Amino acid sequence: MKAPFDLEWIRAQFPALTQEMNGQRVIFFDGPGGTQVPQVVIDAMGDYLVKSNANFHGAFATSARTDELIDSARSAIADFLGCDRDEVVFGANMTTLTFAFSRAIGRQLQAGDEIIVTRLDHDANVSPWCALAEERGVIIRFVDINVTDCTLDWSDLERQINQRTRLIAVGYASNAVGTINDIAAVVRLASKVGALVFVDAVHYAPHGPIDVKALNCDFLACSAYKFFGPHVGIVYGKRQHLASFKPYKVRPASEQVPFCWESGTQNHEGLAGIVAAIDYLAQIARHLQPVEGACAEQADTGKQQAFRSSAKQSTSFYPNRRAAIVKVMKAIQKYELSLSQQLICGLAEIPGLTLYGITQPERSSWRTPTVAIRLAEHTPFSVAKALGDRGIFTWHGNFYAINLTERLGVETNGGLLRIGLVHYNTQQEIQRFLQALHDIAAMSASSI
Ligand SMILES: Cc1ncc(COP(=O)(O)O)c(C=O)c1O
């Protein structure tokens, strides 16, 4: 499938993609661990440090610019998630923020209250809730997975939820095996018993549009370094929750929402990078390819061409940045689906390979292009090392999704090899990767 956007333009935005090893371009299939950043993000962070570097709320120019920047970063994330600015909280990373939110929510829980977590999740959406079991006598219930395709066991979720359930902590998508969960359905189930839903969207965020209002979740966390930005954590919280739960904070800090949730001084250069990362995503709207043969989209195609030809008028054809982002994320989703299918088909031909997760093409909209495998006779580390030596960067281990690797029975023998694609990856890269994996699979463990 031809990419639905100008892939050459996309790749040219990312200086890291020009790195070479042994005379060949490096292949970055390590996206779920952290994506590369476009030049505009690097420039924005440097610019901030040169021109605006200061603490906030001061009576001088650089501090005033910092205040404006913080506002712009909140607006950018509001456009990315489909919420209002004052529902966006920044912090060091998703894990730190989730601990902060779990402790604040925990203040209102009683011994015997229940929280549901899942075996599919990254531990950052498990351990913060489990800590409440020790501290407040909260009961933690684990929802199991269907081992055959690494999806959530829905009937187990329905069995575990009850009148004492106060919160469900669930991932939007698995960072280990790529499964996407039906968050809107989880929220509907939770609302029957009045439970809150805390969504970990860290892995999902670079792969598809997020609309927190449509999902109707109570909280949703993500991390900008997974969607082409710098290392900053983000939590969306419904306004009424941010106002009613009581964060742990120092006395002089603002009591106002959302500032009261932001401990200490923020990573201002990181926030500058966030604005640039979101603008980069919106900018892709100008580089969308005309949709072939789709009558319903023809009018839209005309708009896209006009949109592309007028560089400064990004909002004149898409009503606003949010609309451009949604359009782009849908195009990314479509492109990544074709990459997933190519990768999964190619992997099926490698002898001795086990693939964990959804494989059927008709269900591929329920997975991200993050694919976990093991090769018989080889450890995930040795395969990652052999690929790394060939300039192909993949991850090995448990990726902190430790309940999952334990459940799959691979935790004690090296975990998984994870191939993680994002929209700057190409079909040619997948071909080169598959050839390398064929070669590695044919070698004995001692010779790679
Ligand atoms: C699904 C998922 N959740 C949470 C995290 C933790 O995010 P952070 O590094 O921002 O704490 C990660 C990091 O890899 C992740 O992939």
What features would you describe in this structure?
This protein has 448 residues and is α/β, with parallel strands linked by helices. The chain has three domains: 7-37 and 330-440, Aspartate Aminotransferase, domain 1 (Alpha-Beta Complex), CATH 3.90.1150.10; 42-276, Aspartate Aminotransferase, domain 2 (3-Layer(aba) Sandwich); 286-326. Helix content is 40%, strand content 15%. The chain contains 16 helices and 17 strands. The strands form five sheets. Strands 4-12-11-10-9-5-6 form a seven-stranded mixed sheet, sandwiched between helices. α2 (39-51) packs antiparallel against α10 (268-283). It is globular and about 65 Å long. The structure holds pyridoxal-5'-phosphate.
CATH topology type of the largest domain: Aspartate Aminotransferase, domain 2
Enumerate the distinct ligands: pyridoxal-5'-phosphate
| Annotation field: number of helices | 16
Helix content: 40-55%
Q: Specify the CATH class of the largest domain.
A: Alpha Beta
Largest sheet: 7 strands, mixed
Q: What's the arrangement of secondary structure elements?
A:
Elements: H1 7-12, E1 20-21, E2 24-25, E3 27-28, H2 39-51, H3 61-81, E4 88-91, H4 94-106, E5 114-118, H5 127-136, E6 139-143, E7 145-146, E8 151-152, H6 154-160, E9 165-171, H7 183-192, E10 196-200, H8 212-215, E11 219-223, E12 233-237, H9 239-244, H10 268-283, H11 298-309, H12 314-317, H13 321-347, E13 353-356, E14 370-375, H14 380-389, E15 392-393, E16 395-397, H15 402-407, E17 416-420, H16 427-442
Parallel strand pairs: 3-15, 5-6, 5-9, 9-10, 10-11
Antiparallel strand pairs: 1-2, 4-12, 7-8, 11-12, 13-14, 14-17, 16-17
The structure holds pyridoxal-5'-phosphate.
Pyridoxal-5'-phosphate (PLP) binds at residues 32, 93-95, 122, 124, 171, 175, 200, 202-203, 223, 233.
